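Q: I'm building a small set of examples for a reading group on sequence design. Run inverse folding on the following structure and report the sequence directly after it, with nothing in between.
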């Protein structure tokens, strides 16, 4: 019988079928903390390895049959054996939080995103009674241990230096990075939880939603994505969470954003590069720490055809750029249908 690891790798390279093809492995998004820039040509943390994070993630996981335990999970820091299906899960990254909730698993503990006072509003109700164990950059190890987890989930990008300490508390499984490979990460998380079948079901439902939304949109309007962040303004490319959703919908992008990278950074005087049939923009963090007010009040912005046509709209940063999982993706699809649907 074909192993789940082999099956998942095959799915992520080809398709899950529900009337149309569910293409996996285009994925992506990231938060401010994983979007630091080393050079103008290297926006995404991870450098030359960033664009291969999807295929690298697809090589991870276990060879166990669906739901079978014990299983040994190959992950970014080595191998971890899980004797039984996890019941008490602590999650240390925002993408994995969306993912476990999408699988019907409520974690016993979560870490909040760096520089964020709370979890995304779209997950608030599901996380109301879940204990916080610090932030992704400042973990509370005593609080984690007190929860007596039988699995800790996170990413190497966030908690690599804490891996040894976390592993002493409970079996710890780390993805490579959040963001770009969000579909592969979802399958990987499901593998660790023994919920492989549920993951395929969820991704099929996502694709069905994509197909339904696409049917409501006339033509292929060109979509521009702008994000105001402290110290930088970005136009998001195809290797981003929202970028892959637009790709799944078959919507076109401005040439400068139709790139296999996370984003390009622009200065306020180059905001004309943001033009498209529609402009969707958001702000990460405090608006006063960004160029948002400066750009949105600028004549260059107001001269953009999309702005003059009333087609420049602010969207929710938490779901559009920080969603990182199926729940966030479906929130975005709902927004797009409300805006572009006929």
């Amino acid at each position: 019988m074909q192993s789940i690891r082999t099956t998942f790798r095959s799915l992520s390279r080809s398709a899950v079928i529900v009337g149309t093809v569910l293409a996996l492995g285009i994925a992506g998004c990231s938060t401010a903390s994983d979007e630091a820039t080393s050079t103008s040509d290297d926006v995404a943390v991870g450098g030359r390895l960033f664009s291969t994070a999807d295929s690298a993630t697809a090589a991870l996981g276990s060879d166990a049959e669906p739901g079978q335990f014990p299983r040994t999970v190959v992950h970014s820091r080595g191998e971890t054996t899980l004797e039984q299906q996890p019941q008490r899960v602590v999650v240390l990254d925002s993408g994995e939080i969306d993912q476990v909730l999408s699988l019907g698993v409520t974690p016993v503990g979560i870490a909040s995103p760096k520089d964020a006072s709370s979890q995304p509003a779209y997950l608030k109700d599901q996380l109301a009674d879940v204990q916080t164990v610090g932030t992704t950059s400042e973990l509370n190890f005593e609080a984690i241990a007190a929860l007596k987890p039988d699995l800790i989930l996170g990413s190497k990008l966030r908690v690599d230096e804490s891996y040894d300490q976390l592993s002493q508390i409970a079996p710890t499984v780390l993805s490579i990075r959040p963001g770009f490979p969000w579909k592969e990460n979802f399958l990987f998380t499901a593998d660790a939880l023994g919920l492989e079948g549920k993951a395929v079901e969820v991704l099929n439902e996502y694709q069905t939603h994509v197909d339904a939304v696409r049917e409501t949109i006339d033509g292929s309007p060109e979509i521009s994505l702008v994000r105001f962040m402290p110290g930088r303004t970005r136009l998001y490319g195809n290797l981003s969470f929202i970028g892959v959703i637009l790709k799944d919908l078959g919507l076109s992008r401005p040439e400068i954003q139709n790139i296999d990278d996370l984003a390009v950074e622009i200065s306020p005087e180059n905001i004309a590069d943001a033009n498209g049939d529609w402009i969707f923009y958001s702000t990460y963090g405090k608006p006063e720490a960004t160029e948002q007010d400066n750009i949105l009040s600028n004549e260059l912005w107001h001269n953009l055809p999309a702005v003059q046509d009333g087609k420049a709209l602010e969207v929710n940063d938490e779901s559009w750029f920080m969603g990182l999982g199926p729940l966030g993706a479906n929130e975005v699809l709902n927004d797009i249908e409300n805006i572009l649907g006929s």
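The radius of gyration is 20 Å.
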